[in-house]
Specification:
This protein is an all-alpha fold. The chain has two domains: about 90 residues, RNA polymerase sigma factor, region 2, helix turn helix motif (Rna Polymerase Sigma Factor, Chain: A); about 80 residues, Arc Repressor Mutant, subunit A. About 70% of the residues lie in helices and about 0% in strands. Helix 1 packs across helix 2 and helix 2 packs across helix 3. The protein is elongated and about 70 Å long. The N and C termini lie far apart (about 65 Å).
Length: about 190
Amino acid sequence: MSALLEKHIIELLQERNEKAISLLYENYSDTLYGVAYKVVKDDALAQDVLQESFIKIWKKSETYDPTKAKLFTWLFRITRNTAIDKLRSGKSKQEKEIQMDVSDVYKVGVDGVNPDFIDMRENLLKIDYKYQIVLEALFFEGMTQQEASEELDIPLGTIKSRLKIGLREMRKIYIEPMLIFWIIATILL
C-alpha cells in the first residue's frame, strides 16, 4: 500500500467518512482475516472476528493517533485482540457445559495444563503488582512484549525482566506444590 493511500485513509477515518471503511476493507481485509484465523483457527469464527474488528475500527476511528502507531499496527492490534476475546468467550461457554462422559482427571501432563482451568488469575494476585500487570498484558490481553512496553509505558528491557521474574514467582506457586505431590506419590507407590 502506498503511503499516500494510507494517509488518505487516515484522513477519512479521522473525518468519520464512510469511504474509509471501504478502503480499509479493500486493502486490509485479507491480511486482517489472516490475523484472525491464526488466532481462532476456524474460518467462520475468523469471519466473525473480521466483521467485529471493522465495527470496532469504525467506532474507535477518532482514537487512532498516527504519531503512536502505524495504521496497520493499530488495525492488527484491534483484530488480534478481538480474536483473542472471541476465543476466550467461546472457551468460557464451553467451560460452563458439564460433560460427564469426558474426564481428564488422569491426564496431568504439561500439555493438559490450561491456565484458564487452574485459577491463574487468582494466583496472579499473589505476586507483586509490577509483575502482575506485565503478565496480565502478555498472557491475558495477548500483547507482545513491545506492545506491553508501549501500552504500560515501561521500557522493553524492564518488561522482559518483569516477565522472567513474574514467571519465576508463578512457577513457585504452581510447581512446588506439584513437586511435593509427585514426591509423595512416588514414595507411596
